[in-house]
Structure formats: structure tokens, C-alpha cells
Amino acid sequence: MRNTGPFLLTTLLCAMFSTYARAQTLPLQSDLAPFSYPINSTPPGTTRQVATLSPAHDELPDAPEQQSANFILSDQQSAGSITGTVVDPSGAQVEGALVSIQFIDSRPQRAIATDSTGSFNFTDVNPGTFKIAVVSTGFANWVSSALVLQKGQLYELPTIMLQLSSATTNVDVNFTRHDIAEEQVSLEEKQRVLGVFPNFYVSYNWDAVPLSSGQKFRLALRTAYDPVSIAIPAIIAGVEQSQNTFSGYGQGAAGYFKRFGASYGDGFIGNMIGNAILPSVFHQDPRYFYKGTGTIRSRALYAMSTAFICKGDNGHWQPNYSFILGNFASAGLSNLYYPAGDRNGAGLTISNALIDTASGAASSLIQEFLIKKISRGVPKNPIP
């Protein structure tokens, strides 16, 4: 619905910063497969300290004495993190081992799987007493003694060595694929281009668990209400006001807020329809899955193809109904709030929808070749 200048500005901003990224996925294993998480590196100028643990192979220890751990306090956050590495008796890294935090104060358990380096990383962990349990096929279950996480502590566990299974030991580790998806989304919400612009719809974990409908809506709202997602339409509205774009809105404060509402509405509607509502209806993942390997040509073709095909939550390839229909729906709905003089019928709606689709392919190309290099919060060891 916009004239050439502001529309290109909007398209460029959306493409470069992925504020309203409409992204897609690649094949996902249908069975519960190894899920990986990168370990955040130690902040510059600090030294990681290692706590002492004693494993229990047959049963949980009886009221062990809490061990003291050297730790690093963060002045900025009260929540801490827990990291570690799991290896087998030969010292080889164990990928796909299921690691859970068992809180003593009856908080819900959290669980993730070790990545290809055998590492795991729990972030945003509130202080308290906890135990770590590790379960992996072919190895004896491993449970730590009681440990204490202090406020803001970056807690690095010593290397956990699993022993080959010689007997069956029951350890109560209750977690679901939904819980693992929560951990993955939590990491994605920390990704920002240049440390400022939200980049939530890109997964650097190739085998990420599909999102539930609730998680799709939560991520869409998290993007829509991000301060940067509000600031960009505010800037665009100011440029349109100065150029008297959409003159039917008039000038003054009333005209500015009408332009801001229209600009923000374009992004909000497109984001909710294309990244939450339709992906829930068609059971599709709205995220872009970073490839990062192969020739430039293969990566470019993959990136552009995600505008037209995607992976369903059931693991099968299918047409990308969510993205394509979302573009047409949002373009059509814009006729409800733009000035009558700027509503040029179905022709412009179709044209804008096709331009949005092409912009999505361009955005994916930028994600594949540039955004990772200039983003913060990106995992250090993504699965290739």
C-alpha cells in the first residue's frame, strides 16, 4: 500500500534486521534425537572456577553435605548459569546425553541434551540448591550430590565421566520435548543483530524441536512488543510525515500517529498471521534454520527456497502455506486502515504480497551469509 520510497525503506529494514522475519526450517528427526546447546564463553577478564562433585551410580546420596564451589558473581543479573561436559570412560565426548537439573525446592525440572562436543548449558537459572542427573543409552545413570547456585553465579561443573552400564538404575527424570523446545526458544530470544535488533526467528540448532502453538504465539508477541520493533515504525512514520506520504492522514500529531499505527500494524499483522496463526493451523515451523555448510551456490539456493517450501511439525516437506498466504492476508487487511485514496484494489494487494514474498527470500539470503557475523547471542557451536 506504500509508495516506492518508504516501502523500500521498510523492506530494507525488515530484510537487514529480520525484525519481522518470516523464516522456515529444514528436516527434523521424527524420533527424539540428540539436541545440542552451545556453552556460553566466559566473559572477558574472568576466570572459570570448577566445583567438586561426587557421582552416585546406584541411587541418590543420602543427605550429602553441600559442597562449596568457587563462583563468579554477575553485577547485572541475579540468575546464573550451569555448564558442563559429559564424556565416556575413554574420555570421548558423549553427544545426546540427557542432562536435567533437579531442584531441591520442588521447582519444575529443566532438561537439555548434550551437543556434538558433549557439552550442555543451562541459562537463566535462579539461585538455589540442585542436583544434576545424566542419562544416556549404554551408560549407568549419573547423579551429583547436592550443589548450591548463588545469585549471578556462572557455575562450571567438572567433567562428568559416565560409566558403562552394568545394572539397571532408575532415576526420575521428567521432561518432554516441549521442555527442550522452551530451552531452545530461550536461547533464540537472546540473538540480536549488532546487539540491538531482534533476530529471534533464526535457529542455529539444525535439529531443534518443533514449537507448540503456544510457543509460536509467544515468540510472535515477544517480537512484536520488542522496543526495536516499535521504534522502527515510529521512525518510518516520521519520514512519511515529512514527505506527506498518505496525505489522507493529514498533518500534526493526529496524522503522525495514524501513520505510525499503519506502519506498526503492517508488521504486527504480518508477524502474527505468518509466524503464529497460520503456522499453528498448518503445523509448520516459522523459523529459519541456518545451514552454514556447503558451497555458496547450495547455501543460496537453500536460503531462497525457504520462501516457498518448509518443514512441517510432522517432519515432512510441504508448501510454505504460512508464509505465502500470510503475505496475501496482511496485504489485504491493510486496506482496512489506509486512506481511501491509497487503496488501489486487488492489483496492488497482489503486487505487495509478491514483493513481501521476494523480500522474504532476500532476507533468508542475508541471514545465511551475513547476519550471523554481526549478531550477538549466537551459539558458538551450532550443529552443522
Helix content: 25-40%
What summary fits the major beta sheet? 5 strands, antiparallel
Give the count of helical stretches: 8
SSE sequence, one letter per element: HEEEEEEEEEHEEEHHHEHEEHHE
Give the number of DSSP strands.
16
Average pLDDT number = 78
Strand content: 15-25%
Total discrete domains: 2
Estimate the global geometry from the Cα principal axes.
elongated
Distance between the termini: 40 Å
Runs in which pLDDT lies below 50 for 5 or more consecutive residues are 1-76
Protein name: Carboxypeptidase regulatory-like domain-containing protein
GO molecular function: carbohydrate binding
Signal peptide: 1-23
Keywords: Signal
Task: Tell me what the structure shows.
With 384 residues, this protein is an alpha+beta fold. It is built from eight helices and 16 strands. It is elongated, with a radius of gyration of 24 Å. 39% of the residues are buried. It comes from Tunturiibacter lichenicola. Keywords: Signal.
